[in-house]
Amino acid sequence: MTDLLARRAAVLGPNMPTFYTKPLHLVRGQGVHVWDADGRQYLDCYNNVPHVGHCHPKVVDAVASQAATLNTHTRYLHEGIVTYAERLTAKFDHDLDQLIMVCTGSEANDIAIRMAHAVTGKVGIISTDNTYHGNTHLVTQLSSRKPPIGGYAPFVKRVPSPDTLRPLGGSLAAQGQAFAASVQDAIDALVAEGHGFAGFMFCPVFANEGLHDLDPAFLQPVAQVVRKAGGLLLCDEVQPGFGRCGSHWWGHDRMNIAPDVVTLGKPMGNGHPVAAVVTRPDVMAAFRNAFGYFNTFGGNPVSCAAASAVLDIIEDEGLVENAFQSGRALTENLASLNHPVVASVRGTGLFVALEVERDGVPATDVAATIVEGMKDAGVLMGRTGRHGNTLKFRPPLPFSKDHAAQVAQTLDTVLRGLP
Amino acid sequence: MTDLLARRAAVLGPNMPTFYTKPLHLVRGQGVHVWDADGRQYLDCYNNVPHVGHCHPKVVDAVASQAATLNTHTRYLHEGIVTYAERLTAKFDHDLDQLIMVCTGSEANDIAIRMAHAVTGKVGIISTDNTYHGNTHLVTQLSSRKPPIGGYAPFVKRVPSPDTLRPLGGSLAAQGQAFAASVQDAIDALVAEGHGFAGFMFCPVFANEGLHDLDPAFLQPVAQVVRKAGGLLLCDEVQPGFGRCGSHWWGHDRMNIAPDVVTLGKPMGNGHPVAAVVTRPDVMAAFRNAFGYFNTFGGNPVSCAAASAVLDIIEDEGLVENAFQSGRALTENLASLNHPVVASVRGTGLFVALEVERDGVPATDVAATIVEGMKDAGVLMGRTGRHGNTLKFRPPLPFSKDHAAQVAQTLDTVLRGLP
Fold first, then answer.
1. Looking at chain A, which residue has its C-alpha nearest residue B34?
2. Of A316, A351, A386, which residue constitutes the final position of a domain?
3. Are both A213 and A246 inside the same structural domain?
4. In CATH, what number is assigned to the domain containing residue A363?
5. Residue B227 is part of which domain span?
6. ipTM > 0.90?
């Protein structure tokens, strides 16, 4: 592995990030498990990309079969993209009837922002201040993690993220109005500075902000503010979408929100690079009139075959219901852990967070130690949130109640071993 | 097909473009041929994505085998990306020893521009005025085809493209200096306006500008100007790369240029969505220090397997040499056509252009009629250039001299049938 690390640094650059102090060298995956080069098995509670399970044979077969038949682009007619688009849009309400297929969630969000530009004729965009919507030049403007060379684009404003333990406005009850008020302030600033207001981009479960415990009514005030100002609601479903929330296929339906644009990514093709933007016909028409968009790989027959297989499997194996049941089990099991660093357990479906504090202060180092300890004990997981002190459990959906019990038991042991 | 078109318009939007007056409904591909839903065979002289041939079984097998084994991301260690990166960078000179893998050429060019930002600390970028480098918000600023909502970014300047029949500076001999002079003017303007100069992005065969017939010394003056101003040469090899030029693996080596950053895309995975940025270690370090870049799908084991299979096939089947030989045959066959609309035949390897004029004027409509006629006669091809009057032949590389003869013969018939 030392050799592989050195070779990797030579060709990818020495500061190309890896997970874990001692990086993991994976060689095989199946279902909710992966194996390293030494043959060691890990329960995967991190990876949301292999949504229907690592290496699901139906996805592999669909990709192989279509790749052997035809793989071109959308300037020719093909049944694959049409049938897939019909199936996928049927899972949306709110007149979200049309889509553009692309390759990554970043590309999808880059388009969503330009859809708001096209509909409103304005450029101002608002996001939260501890978010991540992707890696293009435009979309990275929405993240406050690292300012770009030349400074931030002035047409992007960031507002404080909602929080569970330190809610905006001082209480969970006041948080929705406080959040909406800061978005209103940002709108006013964008208008005053001449950019105008085009849209508000958000993840409906605020995953990167720490997967906060928000009432289904939380987004109503901000939605009203955005609508009143003529802006679009740009809903990034890259993480919550495709049933991960358990109760619904999409995070926005869980939050009773009717977005104008929805973006999809990671889980859509179970690892095949496919993503999409779903929107209303009027928004699509405005975008296509304003921008001459074409994506060479987007919506190719193989990508559509992978994505169709994912829909088949979610339906055939009842994975949304499973996310609900196993997610509830995981949340309950984690909530039953009795350890002073556990400050909050929250989540929806198979997207569960456990926030770690010491003496009422976010304990980033403790969370990092736990993630390493869990890996050593055979469970892969991650961290999220502003302080990186929130443990994140986000497994492939074929995750059972037994796996939930295993995770809680392992975490209990790791917590007891904390220095 | 009428039904499929209507269903397509309903879910993708009514103004989603297709090729041809009567769009083609493809169902199968193999080697240099595709078949439509009626079983009709076409010789494919358009598609450069299926670089080693449609549905090459070795690519299909590599993708299927890896997809059944493991498909994760680059925050775990994996042999696949390291081995591929070593093989690919070995094909580059000029200390271009490191890479970032992404999913699309657009993502690659979006990074390349930010590499220039990171190295120089400036933001000004220059491109030609009839180019296309991709579809992200940033990269579309380099195209003059459709101004974005809110106007063009002021830090991008566009300079007149080189041309074969209407050369800058009045003659082919003067064109290199004239091109360099306009880049110098653009640099001066960027500096005067406070943006500073970061880099010049170009396709080394000027494919979208019309695939112009440029002496290998053409780019020397502009390279000197860019270097002297401290800017980076950002070379978009999405179209010319991977041996299409026949004489070399990369277009920049054909033009005797040492770029600072090279971007790769379409042919890299034979249709699997994979792309890359190749650069020197010092540029990579500057980029990674300035930006926290991660791409979920980029460099995943399946993408690396597809890309590795493409390298194997190019080498095993001698496809670069074949591009040289068959490309020469195609160029010679086309040049031997005797018809008044043929104003210029030019190209490199299996990237060949035939410019169409009437009475010394670019004949866009005639070129469009020819493309439709060729399709009806069983040959797929496209158009390029500022006026869309340049026929473009860009087939998969396993294209033989017999195919070249067939194309010329078919074109002869179509030209004779022109109104």
1. A70
2. A316
3. yes
4. 3.90.1150.10
5. 57-316
6. yes
Residues forming beta bridges with residue A77, ordered by sequence position: B25
pLDDT tens for residues B333-360? 999 999 999 999 999 999 999 999 999 9
User: How do residues B30-83 score in pLDDT, each as one tens digit?
Assistant: 999 999 999 999 999 999 999 999 999 999 999 999 999 999 999 999 999 999
Q: Would you place residue B15 in the very low, low, confident or very high pLDDT band (cuts 50, 70, 90)?
A: confident
Task: Quote the mean pLDDT of chain A.
Answer: 96
Instruction: Say yes or no for a CB contact (<8 Å) between B121 and A290.
Output: no
How remote is the C-alpha of A184 from its chain's centroid? 25
Task: Kindly tell me the burial class for residue A144, based on how many C-beta atoms sit within 10 Å of its own C-beta (0-12, 13-18, 19 or more).
Answer: middle
**What sign results for the dihedral spanned by CA atoms A168, A173, A174, A180?**
positive
- Nearest by Cα to A273 from A67, A102, A60, A44: A102
Per-residue model confidence (pLDDT) at position A1: 63
Mean pLDDT of A45-50: 98
Chain A residues whose beta carbon lies within 8 Å of the beta carbon of residue B47: 72
* B93 and B33 share one domain: no
**A69 has a chain B CB within 8 A of its CB:** yes
Which of B107, B118, B121 is nearest residue A104 as measured by Cβ atoms? B107
Are A326 and A299 within one domain? no
Mean pLDDT of all residues in B174-198: 98
Picking from A281, A316, A351, the residue at the C-terminal end of a domain is A316
Which chain A residues touch B63 with a CB distance below 8 Å? Answer: 63-64, 67
DSSP string for A176-211 = HHHHHHHHHHHHHHHHHTT--EEEEEE-TT-TTTT-
Closest CA of chain B from A215, distance in Å: 30
Residues 30-49 on A with a CB inside 8 Å of B are: 34, 47, 49
Partners of A390 in the β-ladder: A355, A384
Q: Measure CB to CB from residue B24 to each of A77, A106, A107 and give the nearest one.
A: A77
How many domains does the structure of chain A reveal? 2
Q: Which residues of A touch B150 (CB under 8 A)?
A: 117, 122-123, 155
Gap from A166 CA to chain B (nearest CA, Å):
27
Compare all CA atoms of chain B with the CA of A300 and give the residue at the minimum distance. B271
- Please give the residue of chain A at the shortest CA–CA distance from B292: A146
Q: How many helices (H) and strands (E) in chain A? A: 13, 16
